[in-house]
Request: fold
Amino acid sequence: MVDGHNFKSSKMVFLEAEMNSNVLISPDQLTPQGLLLQKAIITRLLEDIANKKASKEHGYFIAITSLKSIGDGRVRTLTGDVLFPVSFSCLTQKPTKGEVLTGTVERILKHGLFVKSGPIEDIFISEKMTGDYKYVPGESPMFLSEKHSKLEKGVSVRFKVVGFRWMEADRQFQLLATLAGDFLGPI
Amino acid sequence: MSAGEEEENAAELKIGDEFLRAKCLMNCEVAIILEHKYEQLQQMSDDPANQVSQVFEKSLQYVKRFSRYKNPDAVRQVREVLSRYQLAEFELCVLGNLCPETVEEAIAMVPSIKTKGRIDDDEQIEKMLHDLSLIKKFE
Reply:
């Protein structure tokens, strides 16, 4: 069941998406036994997805949950490799603007803090977006609120995604977030 | 598409169609799936750590840390309770993940409950949150 027709405005959480892809099998992996071929295709698909990590369209590829079908192979005349179209389900996660996530504080700097959340490693909360938490320098710097609540490395926080972009070179998302809002902050 | 382009696409693992059909999962459901996957890999291979990607590892750590419900029966009950209301899939998951304690918090986390008229009656929201907390109590 999918909400509405507009994925872009929905607050995505973990999605199990159905996808199609092509797996390339080299001739030395092609044996008369059908079973070994299937294993080679699955292994190759797992490797490809793990290496791909994420895409701008789908977000992070977390785990393949099931294999739907493997189509007929087509031979690549130049190399002799065989291309198999594969249909499968994959767990994915993609950030969305306005969504509320939980994460762990990774680094404290004067101008803000860095947070990690699941596969998303690069989340920055500017000191302008920390509500009434103020930077406190020292050997282990932190952000402190008037009520003496601390934001330091290892603390779990709830934050809202203000914006994000896809970094092609690193194959990951970079997020900007805020703690200013009801029910946001350390949990 | 020329043969050359196709070759390039295949090498890049260009995913063909977009989402054909997608369903949303709560953190606690994902935790169960990923833990099961990890067990499968342990049985299949001598070195399971080699088979799982960083994305998998970090996601597993994350969902284990931020799942309120651990027991598979409890997780099933949570989805069942939330499914009784006219919520969109993602709204259901956000509520199941964030486990708001008050009606105020629930509306703050998922404003569309009110703005899109999913649950008009605050008492109903109260009941839903109460049922969720009972599941936790008896987990």
